[in-house]
Design brief:
- The complex is a heterodimer of chains A (393) and B (243).
- With 393 residues, chain A is mainly alpha-helical.
- Chain A has 2 domains: 3-42 and 180-392, no CATH class; 55-166, D-Maltodextrin-Binding Protein, domain 2 (3-Layer(aba) Sandwich).
- Chain A has helices spanning 3-18, 20-54, 68-76, 88-97, 110-116, 131-158, 179-187, 189-216, 219-223, 229-259, 275-302, 306-316, 321-330, 344-355, 361-387, and strands at residues 57-62, 79-83, 103-105, 123-125.
- A 4-stranded mixed sheet of chain A has the order 2-1-3-4, sandwiched between helices.
- Chain A is elongated and about 105 Å long.
- Chain B has 243 residues and is an alpha/beta fold.
- Chain B has a domain at 2-83 and 152-236: Rossmann fold (3-Layer(aba) Sandwich), CATH 3.40.50.
- Chain B contains 9 helices and 10 strands.
- In chain B, the strands form 2 sheets. Chain B has a 6-stranded mixed sheet, with helices on both faces.
- In chain B, α4 packs across α5 (135-147).
- The chains are: A mainly alpha (393), B alpha/beta (243).
- Chains A and B meet through α1 and α9 of A and α2, β6, α3 and α5 of B.
Chain lengths: 393, 243
């Protein structure tokens, strides 16, 4: 590397590493705490939904004496049955008074109709706007349905008819998604997190090296040195890229560690983010750091002050998420042409690796190469911008 | 040795520099004196190659400023109008950074940094980060980094701006020392006292033109004035921007 580019890069890195605030946001809060936080929330959500699957759904049965077998069936289906007699009006009052209450009322004529083999109605009372009650009511309906099918089958058998004749068509659902693929759906956001935190790693250096340098009044003195102006900006971009690569390394490592602590297996999912995958994610996203560093530096070069740069770059940081969002809405499948779109290509590569179905080596190379080419183009553009007098501001 | 001829530079409709020409000799201190907005900074900026003139020529030690800006920058040390330094680096690191970009390295760089920190009397805080430096300390560091490569020519844009009396005196002593070492020193100021106290030659600039030039004695003689201040007022027509 040309010695002046190296000198600029090392100086920018040294300054960044000495600024505690920069260090905190670029390398600590972003790369290490953001994934931990994300995964902690994921873990909470998972354990809650596991708990709600296992819990006994409570149901209150009114006039249970008329249908003892039905009540027994409810108990066997894992429902927590409470017996309490009351009229229609009383039941309505109970429901308005108690959250999550589901009441099954057995009408007085139930036993008579049941014995005659006529459809015997039961009423399930619930507050449809109460999502918890609605969840419990579904369990109750399923249990009653199962009981009805059972009795129906027995009646047919008693009349010498095979119960299967009433099942003209049955649906067998075949889920072919691998456990990793199911997890990826849930963890799809992780590639956003990785790309954003990578960019964040170099954000402050990019601002400081351009708008910051101008605001502090050190730019003019720098431009009086016998260094080709392009080399100054190349050094700054290199510095930002190094910060981004460090942030990327930290965030992939942190995700790999944190995901180990989530009980995804209990959901039939596995998080394919071991050290091997983390390393490959790192290698494949690293070229994107050059795109990010050059892009942020180019934009920051246009701004006059630190504040202005901050507000502009806040918007620019979202640019790489746009192709990912569009692709998600259109649910596009990976294809060679998409490997030419930086950020989207990295997203697809990460998704593939996490799914345990990596894209072909040629595609991954194409993604890396196109990111490098775009990064170099932006770097060249930054050099052109720095040659203008207007850079003095 | 700095030679400037017929420099012109417009910013839109404003003629910042409108045909400036003068010479600054080695071993002498040349002052660019003029009110604010007279074109002093623009002239210096053209000389230290961050601006290009619309027309005219300038050379430093025979190097054409426009043809070979990189060689020009090797031959000059510059203290720009806004001479900010890096707050997270120590004084020493600030100076060494510029030395490195001048192509110095290793022992040679360390030796030069030692020399300039000693010459400017900043050894006492050389290892401290520049964040809390006073304006005087900052200017000294900025001057030290301008001198780190041992340039023959020095361009100083309003160097005493914001300095207290002691710092101003120290700066003057340093400039005089550099003169006796044979350097060519060109500095701009709108402060009459400054120029009187230091300059061997004075170039009075107003509205982008040189309105008078010469030694203080010659200028007083030219305008038949008792003091340089009277000569200055006579030259630019009023007492604008005098301090």
């Amino acid at each position: 590397m040309i010695s002046s580019i190296r000198a600029v890069m090392l100086k920018e890195l040294r300054e960044s590493l000495r600024d505690r605030r920069t260090l905190l946001t670029s390398l600590l809060l972003g790369p290490i705490f953001a994934p931990l936080f994300f995964i902690l929330i994921l873990k909470l959500a998972l354990s809650r939904s596991i708990a709600s699957q296992d819990e006994l759904a409570p149901v209150t049965v009114a006039n249970a004496a008329a249908a003892p077998n039905l009540v027994q069936q409810l108990r066997e289906s894992g429902l927590k049955v409470t017996l309490r007699d009351g009229s229609d009006a009383e039941i309505r009052r109970w429901i308005s008074e108690t959250d999550g209450l589901v009441v099954l009322r057995v009408p007085a004529n139930f036993a008579a109709r049941f014995t005659e083999g006529k459809p015997a109605a039961v009423m399930v009372y619930t507050d449809g706007s109460d999502s918890k009650a609605e969840r419990h009511a579904a369990r109750v309906r399923d249990a009653v349905g199962a009981y009805s099918a059972l009795i129906g089958g027995l009646r047919l058998q008693a009349r010498g008819v095979a119960p299967t004749v009433v099942h003209a068509v049955v649906v067998d659902q075949v889920d072919v998604s691998t456990p990793s693929a199911r997890a990826t759906l849930l963890l799809g956001m992780l590639s956003y997190v990785i790309l954003l935190i990578t960019l964040l790693g170099g954000l402050y250096l990019a601002i400081d090296a351009t708008a910051g340098e101008r605001e502090r009044g050190s730019l003019e003195a720098l431009l009086t040195l016998p260094v080709v102006r392009e080399h100054l900006i190349y050094g700054k971009i290199a510095g930002a890229a190094v910060m981004m690569i460090v942030a990327l390394a930290l965030v992939t490592a942190s995700i790999a560690v944190a995901l180990g602590a989530v009980p995804l297996e209990t959901f039939g999912m596995s998080a394919n983010f071991g050290p091997g995958v983390a390393w490959r994610v790192f290698l494949n996203v690293a070229p994107f750091a050059l795109v990010g560093a050059a892009l942020l530096t180019v934009v920051a070069s246009f701004t006059k002050s630190y504040k202005e740069a901050q507000s502009w770059l806040g918007v620019v940081m979202l640019v790489p998420t746009v192709p990912i969002a569009i692709a998600a809405v259109l649910s596009v499948q990976p294809q060679a042409s998409l490997m030419l779109v930086p950020s989207l290509s990295q997203h697809l590569v990460i998704q593939g690796l996490m799914r345990g179905e990596p894209l072909s080596a040629a595609w991954m190379l194409l993604a890396a190469a196109s990111a490098l080419v775009l990064g170099l183009l932006l770097t060249w553009l930054a050099g052109r911008l720095y040659r203008r007098e207007a850079i003095l501001g | 040795m700095i030679r400037v001829e017929g420099l012109r530079r417009n910013f839109g409709a404003i003629r910042a520099v409108d045909g400036v020409g003068f010479e600054a000799q080695d071993g002498r201190i040349t002052g660019l004196l003029g009110p604010n907005g007279a074109g002093k900074s623009t002239t210096l900026r053209i000389l230290y190659t961050v601006l290009r003139p619309d027309s005219g020529t300038a050379s430093i030690d025979g190097i054409d400023v426009l043809q070979d800006p990189i060689a020009t920058r090797r031959a000059i040390g510059v203290l720009p109008h806004s001479a900010g330094i890096y707050p997270h680096l120590t004084a020493r690191e600030n100076i060494a950074y510029f030395g490195r970009l001048h192509g110095l390295a290793g022992d040679a760089l360390a030796r030069r940094v030692d020399e300039v920190t000693a010459a400017l009397d900043i050894a006492g805080y050389a290892g401290r980060r520049a964040k809390g430096f006073s304006q005087g300390e900052r200017i000294k560091v900025a001057l030290a980094r301008a001198l780190v490569h041992g340039p023959k020519n020095l361009l100083l844009d309003e160097p005493t701006n914001g300095l207290d009396v002691m710092a101003t005196r120290a700066l003057r002593a340093l400039v005089l020392e550099l003169r006796s070492a044979g350097h060519c020193i060109l500095f701009s100021s709108h402060v009459m006292q400054e120029v009187v106290a230091l300059c061997d030659d004075i170039v009075i600039i107003d509205h982008g033109r040189v309105v008078a030039a010469g030694t203080p004695e010659a200028l007083r003689g030219q305008f038949g004035a008792a003091t340089l201040e009277d000569a200055f007022v006579a030259a630019i027509g009023d007492a604008r921007g005098l301090e």
